[in-house]
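[Q] Does anyone have a clean structure-token version of this?
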Amino acid sequence: MFNKLKEVKDLRNQAKTLQNALAQESIEVTNKDCSMTMDGNQKITKLDINEKYLEKSEKTKLEEIIIELHEQATKKVQKVMMKKMREQGGFDNFPGMN
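[A] Here you go.
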């Protein structure tokens, strides 16, 4: 039983290390004069919107752009996450995952 508790603690420590490493990562995507920056934990850290999309008539277009930016950023972050996990040994170091 104590081995399982140690494995859980080790897993938690590895996850925290990965989370901290990902927080240091930053990606930026651009679409139609708007941009979004997201950290490795998928937190949006910056959103830059071209003023022309702030007009009421452009509301739908702005919504589409933000969704597209978020999808692009998420895909890039997921690639960074996988790279970081591989650097830490992938799932081989996670108890119960091998």
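[Q] Thanks! Anything notable?
[A] The two ends are 19 Å apart (CA to CA).
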